[in-house]
Structure formats: C-alpha cells, structure tokens
C-alpha cells in the first residue's frame, strides 16, 4: 500500500501469522498511514489474554497519537490501560505485551519500543538493528559476558525485562530518532520472525523481494519453514 505524508510517499505492507506451533495469534499490527504510524505488539498471558493485551495496547497507542501525544507518552497510557483492564477482570490479570512503534514525518522517523519486538533499517547492502531488546540475554550481551550468537541459542533468550502491563514500575521505552535514505526499508517485527531468521537472512529476502507485499509474505513463510515456533508479524 502507499500513503503520502509531508511530501514523502510511504509504501508499506504488513502481515501476521500464528506460526506452526501456536493455536492462536497473540500478535497485533497497527497500520495507520493517516497518522504516519505503524506498530507491532506481541502479547503474552494465559487464556488467550495475550491477544487482548496486544490489541488494547495498539488501540490506546493510536488514540493517544490521534490526540497529539508523543510515542513515549502514548506507550505509558497503553501500559496503564492494560493494568486497569487486569484490575477489572481477574482473567486478564498479569497479561502484557511487547511493542515497537514507528512514526514518520517526511523521511524522518521516531521509534519507541518495549520488550523484544524489533525495528531494523535495511538497504540493498546492509541491515541495522535500531532497537535494543529489553531482555535478559541482551543484558548479558551488553555486559560483555555473552555473544550475540550465544544469546540466540540461550535457554533464557525469551525472558524479557520490560513490557507493557507487567512491570512493577512505569515502563521506560527505548526511543530513537533517525532518517530514512532513499531506497531504505524500516522493518518492524515480533520475535517470532527474529527467532527463526538471522539478520543476514532477513537482509537477503529484503534485497531480492520484488515488492513489499511479497517481502512480508516471504519473511513469514521463511520463519514458518524454519520452525514457526511463535506467532510471526512484520
């Protein structure tokens, strides 16, 4: 699809799939080109409450941005909404979600994230992870006691240290401002994609896909072929 915002033409595509192992999809996607806003949320919680948390987070995110809030303020409101939903419904207590969001202004972008859903900048020649996971293994990598390759295989690789709805204190999202150059792609995805595909594989698919619609289809298909152990969204 295509949208025009602040004289820049934005082409985008999105796809979410339950994967090969999960009975239902707890990921949610937000594509709001009229707000120049896109986001991926990966929910967690029993009794299908993860999908409630991820959908609620993106609903509140959109509402807040429509009212003029910045991404970090909107994320704080989404966190409060998930906590409040758990307080009024015992079945929803303890649900939470990761989130990565991007807002564009021309070629400039603002990213905000919590948890291990990621944002990448991709050109024809290289891929750059822009977000930094709020996860236990990323903390070990940052401390220099574990390599990125070891982190991908570690039994605790899915343990996140921040998310919406489950933090004891107010979440502290990562925020990054940057600019896309002509021909570059901004990829938002859940860990169902990055858990099955390496950055190099994502780059290869991005460099050879004929369209963005075909790219998201190929990425999801490849993640499922490599195991599909989680919901996959990009």
Quick description:
With 234 residues, the chain is α+β, with helices and mostly antiparallel strands. Helices cover 33% and strands 26% of the residues. The chain has helices at 49-66, 71-88, 136-142, 148-153, 191-194, 199-208, 212-225, and strands at residues 2-5, 8-11, 16-17, 27-32, 37-44, 96-105, 108-114, 118-122, 127-129, 174-179, 185-189, 232-233.
Can you tell me about this structure?
By secondary structure, the protein is of the alpha+beta class. 33% of the residues lie in helices and 26% in strands. The strands form 4 sheets. It has a 5-stranded antiparallel beta sheet, covered by helices on one side. Helix 1 packs across helix 2. The longest helix has 18 residues, at 49-66. The chain is globular.
